[in-house]
């Protein structure tokens, strides 16, 4: 198995195209064609993570936070920490791959795993992505429509939430007249042809638009394929920000705060009081999501768990919603368990590749107890 196979896995689960436009996701360092020995998972990359990868014979490190985010102006291995790490990685033939905001925005990604970790059920996106979908309309001879439809679905088209192979069909008559230089699949050159065709309509996400169109054209019998692409203003039920769910039954404020402390292994955390005396519906967002507080309030959530909140954000939310700053590292770390499970399923029992989680912590935030 090569690094490219791992990248393809992530592209199906958390497409790079859904990442924040200023993010830097994907292969950071290394070669996609390199054969994978073992894999090490970590939220961040530092010297200790690289050293553990070397000890465990891992030549692929997968991080959530990109190691290379801002452009590198120089590589000075005499004193610059980042440069020294790059040199060590290259000398040891270790590749680095990062899935950042694309992993935040996908189903069962960062926020979904946070919600599951604290015990929420019936989990959905807190706010869905928008303006990143298209409708593909293609005209196909009736006898070829199943082949073309399958090519579209196999490339990722026609997925709406928990449903796949979604499409709409209507029949009609198509007309065309090929020139002397044409090579028509049906009929003759320089002759007006009428063919019974199916208009096939399928919803496509921006993340796989190119792949779907390429697959569709390859499966289509016509020399010149007639198709249309319509940009949509729909919300995208497949991707979004944060997550929201419910406990099976309402719990007290004390029990809720205790649950957070135990499930996320928190030494302490900041919070402000809400308006309800018990907690049932909870919104979450792993990492820095202060901009979603109003969305959480509007959703009817009793509490919102996120990180990196400002003083005035707490002030504005007071007595409206229980607002909890549970820590950036602490709210994102649970996703590593899901990555490990998915990778092990991908690799299978017949492969010798092992998947490890970094045994230490890359959290730079420490707590002082007097």
Give the biggest sheet.
Answer: 6 strands, mixed
Number of helices: 12
Proportion of residues in extended strands: 25-35%
Which word captures the global form? Answer: globular
How far apart are the first and last residues' alpha carbons, in Å? 51 Å
Question: Which strands sit side by side, in order, in the main sheet?
Answer: 5-12-14-15-16-13
Please describe the topology of this protein.
Blueprint: H1 3-13, E1 26-29, E2 39-42, H2 47-55, E3 60-63, H3 81-91, E4 95-98, H4 101-104, H5 110-117, E5 121-124, E6 127-130, E7 133-141, H6 145-154, E8 168-177, E9 192-205, H7 209-219, E10 227-232, E11 235-241, E12 243-252, H8 253-263, E13 270-272, E14 278-288, H9 293-298, E15 303-307, H10 311-317, E16 322-325, H11 328-332, H12 335-347, E17 355-357
Parallel strand pairs: 2-3, 2-17, 3-4, 14-15, 15-16
Antiparallel strand pairs: 1-4, 5-12, 6-11, 7-9, 7-10, 8-9, 12-14, 13-16
Written overview of the protein:
The chain has 370 residues and is of the alpha/beta class. It folds into 3 domains: 3-99 and 334-357, 3-Layer(aba) Sandwich (Udp-n-acetylmuramoylalanyl-d-glutamate--2,6- Diaminopimelate Ligase, Chain: A, domain 1), CATH 3.40.1390.30; 110-128 and 240-326, Udp-n-acetylmuramoylalanyl-d-glutamate--2,6- Diaminopimelate Ligase, Chain: A, domain 1 (3-Layer(aba) Sandwich); 132-232, Alpha-Beta Plaits. The protein is 29% helix and 29% strand. The chain contains 12 helices and 17 strands. A 6-stranded mixed beta sheet has the order 5-12-14-15-16-13, sandwiched between helices. β15 (303-307), α10 (311-317) and β16 form a beta-alpha-beta unit. α6 (145-154) packs antiparallel against α7 (209-219). The longest helix has 13 residues, at 335-347. The radius of gyration is 25 Å and the shape is globular.
């Amino acid at each position: 198995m090569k690094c490219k196979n791992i990248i393809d896995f992530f592209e199906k689960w958390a497409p790079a195209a859904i990442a924040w436009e200023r993010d830097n996701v994907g292969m950071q360092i290394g070669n996609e064609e390199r054969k994978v020995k073992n894999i090490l998972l970590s939220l961040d990359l530092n010297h200790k993570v690289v050293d553990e990868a070397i000890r465990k014979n891992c030549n692929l490190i997968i991080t959530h936070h990109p190691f290379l985010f801002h452009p590198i102006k120089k590589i000075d291995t005499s004193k610059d920490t980042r440069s020294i790490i790059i040199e060590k990685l290259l000398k040891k033939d270790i590749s680095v791959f990062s899935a950042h905001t694309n992993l935040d925005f996908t189903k069962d990604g960062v926020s979904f795993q946070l919600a599951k970790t604290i015990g929420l059920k019936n989990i959905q996106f807190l706010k869905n992505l928008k303006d990143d979908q298209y409708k593909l309309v293609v005209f196909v001879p009736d006898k070829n429509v199943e082949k073309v439809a399958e090519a579209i679905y196999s490339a990722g088209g026609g997925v709406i939430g928990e449903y796949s192979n979604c499409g709409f069909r209507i029949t009609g008559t198509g007309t065309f007249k090929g020139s002397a230089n044409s090579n028509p699949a049906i009929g003759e050159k320089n002759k007006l042809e009428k063919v019974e065709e199916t208009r096939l309509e399928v919803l496509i996400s921006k993340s796989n638009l190119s792949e779907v169109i390429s697959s569709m054209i390859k499966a289509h019998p016509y020399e010149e394929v007639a198709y249309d692409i319509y940009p949509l203003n729909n919300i995208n039920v497949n991707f979004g920000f944060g997550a929201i769910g419910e406990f099976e039954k309402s719990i007290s404020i004390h029990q809720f705060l205790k649950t957070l402390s135990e499930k996320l292994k928190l030494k302490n955390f900041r919070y402000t009081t809400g308006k309800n005396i018990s907690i049932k519906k909870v919104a979450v967002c792993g990492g820095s999501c202060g901009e979603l507080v109003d969305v959480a309030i509007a959703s009817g959530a009793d509490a919102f768990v996120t990180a990196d909140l400002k003083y005035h954000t707490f002030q504005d939310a007071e007595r409206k919603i229980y607002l909890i700053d549970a820590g950036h590292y602490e709210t994102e770390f649970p996703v590593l368990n899901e990555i490990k499970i998915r990778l092990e399923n991908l690799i299978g029992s017949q492969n010798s590749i092992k998947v490890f989680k970094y045994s230490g912590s890359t959290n730079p935030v420490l707590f002082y107890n007097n």
